[in-house]
Design a protein that fits this description.
This protein has five helices and no strands. The protein has 101 residues and is mainly α. The C terminus is likely disordered.
Length: 101
Amino acid sequence: MRNEFQELVGRLSEREQEVLGHLAHGDTYAAIARRMNVSPHTVDTYLRRIRGKTGARSRMHLLLLALSADGPRVTTGDSGASPVEPLRPPGTADPCGCHPG
């Protein structure tokens, strides 16, 4: 199942992966929009596209997708927004020590 999730995440654009990463870290649509310097409507559009590409049926399914894959690669782009670190597989080291593995 994990390979299937990784394959699905691999189909997403970088921006879609970024949105998925923010969602996996618990951000609201409004918070994601602020971080990415887009409107909440744009975040909703990205999430609808992600659902279409992955077959995810709900926000919870999207979260499971993000957490089961190695994690979406997210970037800050030129917006200056703070990055979301890629999700780490369980048991791997956390460089800052503030996120349990």
